[in-house]
Design brief:
This protein is α+β, with helices and mostly antiparallel strands. 32% of the residues lie in helices and 27% in strands.
Length: 233
């Protein structure tokens, strides 16, 4: 593996405007303060997920947290949350939630609230549950649209069956509609270490990260049309 990553990798939120004025330097400073708190919250969320009915859902490291774990087992210096993914099949959504993703999300959110967590459903740019600690404050992702984000947050992003391709999953993020994760590259999950925690990860994390981000090596540049990184020519 080539671990000489361009430092700009995983700045998609900044490039697309989601951080609304937060510089990379500000993110790095915030991560020094809030990173350990995010990890502690992640461990608490893990306890809930470990007792989830795994015949109905499968969870794993996702996005920037997966990237950091795969790269060197550490948090990306400018990351702003703790990312997990959870796959729920169409069959389960149909049988348990009357075919409604909205009911699925509300049920998942309620599970965390019933266990003493602060949590909310987000569907504005992705289908996810945000589990957070409001006591540590928040900032605007997009003030014009009223989208805020808590400094200590665990993101639990939904993965669904791909709408047109068999045996594939699709990330629900609006920038990830290009994704098609073959089930055999995702499951059964393996394990990666992240900040000393051993956590489930996609069966082939490198292929999963490539699907999410594109080119993973040095000299990467962001292509706003494909929403993927490419090797600079």
């Amino acid at each position: 593996k080539n671990f000489q990553f361009l430092e700009a990798l995983h700045l998609t939120k900044m490039i697309t405007g989601w951080h609304h004025g937060k510089s990379k330097e500000q993110l790095i400073e915030a991560a020094k303060v809030y990173g350990p708190m995010r990890h502690k919250l992640g461990l608490k969320v893990k306890e809930i997920l470990d007792n989830w009915d795994l015949s109905k859902s499968l969870w794993f490291l996702d996005a920037g947290t997966l990237l950091g774990a795969w790269r060197n087992g550490k948090m990306i210096p400018h990351d702003d949350d703790f990312d997990l993914g959870v796959y729920v099949s169409n069959k389960v959504i149909d049988e348990m939630y009357e075919g409604s993703k909205a009911k699925l999300l509300e049920s998942m959110c309620k599970k965390f609230k019933d266990n003493g967590f602060e949590a909310r459903v987000v569907t504005s740019y992705v289908d996810k549950i945000e589990i957070y600690e409001s006591e540590h404050g928040k900032f605007w992702l997009n003030e014009e649209h009223g989208i805020d984000f808590h400094n200590v947050t665990v993101d639990l992003t939904l993965f669904y069956d791909h709408p047109t391709k068999k045996n594939c999953l699709q990330n629900s993020h609006m920038n990830s509609k290009h994704t098609c994760f073959p089930i055999d590259e995702m499951f059964p999950t393996g394990e990666l270490t992240y900040e000393g925690m051993v956590l489930p990860a996609p069966a082939d994390p490198e292929k999963s990260l490539t699907m999410m981000y594109g080119y993973l090596g040095p000299n990467a540049i962001w292509n706003p049309e494909t929403k993927l990184y490419e090797k600079a020519k």
